[in-house]
Amino acid sequence: AQKITQTQPGMFVQEKEAVTLDCTYDTSDPSYGLFWYKQPSSGEMIFLIYQGSYDQQNATEGRYSLNFQKARKSANLVISASQLGDSAMYFCAMRNSGYALNFGKGTSLLVTP
Amino acid sequence: EAGVTQFPSHSVIEKGQTVTLRCDPISGHDNLYWYRRVMGKEIKFLLHFVKESKQDESGMPNNRFLAERTGGTYSTLKVQPAELEDSGVYFCASSQTVGGISYEQYFGPGTRLTVT
């Protein structure tokens, strides 16, 4: 069975600092994709970043980067230079051979001034 | 380009009643998905349409849930009769497939369903 684990229910970070949100996964499939989504208080789910299991380099999208450590089965999200608008729930998700996403429970991030 | 839209944003119904949720995917996206998050739990996959066909409905909890996507455009998810445990947020997502590769799923704002 595929499983996503996010061990941090809540995180605090000061504005302009970097923060790492943890995500570990478990799968026996050699081909999979890892995603991070942001859910602000308004409720919509916003796609942030994607990492394929065969990608050699860590994915980056602006201030977001994914620290992909395949052997450790971890896909941590790094947000650099945090902004107040980054306060939200963050979900890690994995897709295997099918199309369905398996989500973790999420991490609530609060950025303080 | 308009994103995924869902209607209604909130719905409060009594146990035993029927509710129909609607999702309009991004134009041109063949893939449409339904997910659900009940309080305190993970977001769970319900089903996946490719155009008008159900590709995977392994996540549908029981036969009180019926999803349709007539014409391969918008989709509806009907719950009949609703039970208390059906309360949660129902998300719809869509994605495109190009050259056999499915791209990221774009989510709608969700419908918050409360069954009393």
What's the alpha carbon Rg of chain B, rounded to whole Å? 14 Å
Main sheet specs of chain B: 7 strands, mixed
Which regions of chain A have little confidence, pLDDT < 50, spanning 5+ residues? none
Helix content of chain B: under 10%
**Total helix count of chain A?**
0
From the spread of the alpha carbons, the general shape of chain A counts as globular
Instruction: Give the overall pLDDT of chain A as a whole number.
Output: 93
Biggest sheet details of chain A: 6 strands, mixed
Walk me through the structure.
The complex is a heterodimer of chains A (about 110) and B (about 120). By secondary structure, chain A is mostly beta strands. In chain A, about 0% of the residues lie in helices and about 50% in strands. Chain A has strands at about 5, 10-15, 20, 25, 35-40, 45-50, 60, 65-70, 75-80, 90-95, 100-105, 105-110. In chain A, strands 2, 5, 6, 10, 11 and 12 form a six-stranded mixed sheet that branches. In chain A, strands 3-9-8-7 form a four-stranded antiparallel sheet, with no helix packed on it. The radius of gyration of chain A is 13 Å and the shape is globular. Chain B has about 120 residues and is mainly beta. Chain B contains no helices and 13 strands. In chain B, the strands form three sheets. In chain B, strands 2, 4, 5, 6, 9, 12 and 13 form a seven-stranded mixed sheet that branches. In chain B, a hairpin with a 2-residue loop joins strand 10 and strand 11 (about 100). The interface of A and B includes residues 42, 43, 93, 99 and 100 of A.
